[in-house]
Description:
Layout: E1 7-12, H1 18-30, E2 34-39, H2 49-56, H3 74-81, E3 84-90, H4 92-100, H5 106-113, E4 117-122, H6 126-130, H7 132-143, E5 147-148, E6 152-155, E7 161-165, H8 169-182, E8 190-195, E9 200-201, E10 207-208, H9 215-226, E11 230-235, E12 248-251, H10 255-265, E13 271-274, E14 281-283, H11 293-296, E15 304-306, H12 310-313, E16 320-326, H13 331-342, E17 346-350, H14 352-355, E18 362-363, E19 365-369, E20 372-376, E21 380-381, H15 382-395
Parallel strand pairs: 1-2, 1-3, 3-4, 4-5, 8-11, 8-13, 11-12, 13-16, 16-17
Antiparallel strand pairs: 6-7, 9-10, 14-15, 17-19, 18-21, 19-20
Helix pairs in contact: 1-2, 1-8, 3-5, 4-7, 9-15
Amino acid sequence: MTEKRSNVLLLVTGGIAAYKSCYLTRLLIKAGFSVRVAMTESAQHFVGSVTFRTLSGHGVATDLWGEGDTDPLDHVDLARWADIAVVAPATANLLGKAAGGIADDIVSTLMLAFDGRLILAPAMNNKMWHHPATQSNLNLLCERGATIVEPESGWLACGVEADGRMAEPEVICQAVEELEADSSLLAGKKIVVTAGPTREKIDAIRYISNRSTGAFGTSIATAAKNFGADVTLIHGPLCVRTPGGMKSLLPVESASEMFEAVQREIADADMLVMCAAVADYSPLAPSDFKLKKDDLGDNWSVEMKRTTDILASIDTGDTTVVGFALETDDVAERAAGKLSAKGMDYIVANDPVKDGSFGENDHHVLLIDSSGIIWDSGVKSKKLIAPELLKEIAKK
């Protein structure tokens, strides 16, 4: 018996390339996907809804009011039904709406209600394609996790030969198949990810910490979840939104609490990704009360003790271990030294000070194993680096 493939929601907007989406529907169904279609009013000026109803075997959602084939709650029900949403063609107008969270028709409303895997196949005049607003909107959607099937060069409806032409249906169908494959890349694996800083108590009010925000660690956790893994996220105090869809969220405060949580969770884990910025030192004698400056005097010294080195202190067994090395000089060399000293499988070397990449800014990392540097991310957002990093590790 053939295994059931994903549910694909095809969203068609008002561009001349809408005719290609008819063939895309046929290709997706032939490949074994279940397909439902929604169209904007503009799209219906190019292709009638009856065409997609015939090809898909289902009614086509065309408005928000329950008219024609549309049910009043299609904007919610179809979003829940779909595993993958494909916008083809994705016009400049649609990209702007999606980036801004505007929901004023059935397609833009479905996109706002859909939280699964999204593919965008842009199609427009080359001037519109290269406009800074279009590229900004596209970059934002990409950072949120959308997959872009780049437009091709060719004859455009305006009579010029340039880029902006929607990719061929075969290319888009292949992108859907690849995205479905990615969703099972880590299926059945338990992955433990640590993220964010720790806070080491000085007294009832004060603590010692660092500039980590948790942006990279949460991006890795989200990517692992999207690849089908059961993810346990152990995190210190975050400056970014806590991601959804995790098997378990374990908030911790101090280095000792993170050590205990990692030691407990690694027992049955397939992979440990130590992205957290764990404090190296902690106050030797923290106070349960606020220390008064009148008692401390003009100068104040806090005696510190080393915290437990988590990776050096736990038995990782057969768990694949990915460590992180934050360095500000000799980045690759120092990271390689830590890889060897702590017996990790991989280490991710990065210099956030040089890159100015604390928070959700663009970043640059090197993936290193015992043979040396095996992958260079280039400069891009952490949300884009995270899935690529996991794919590189999964190849091994």
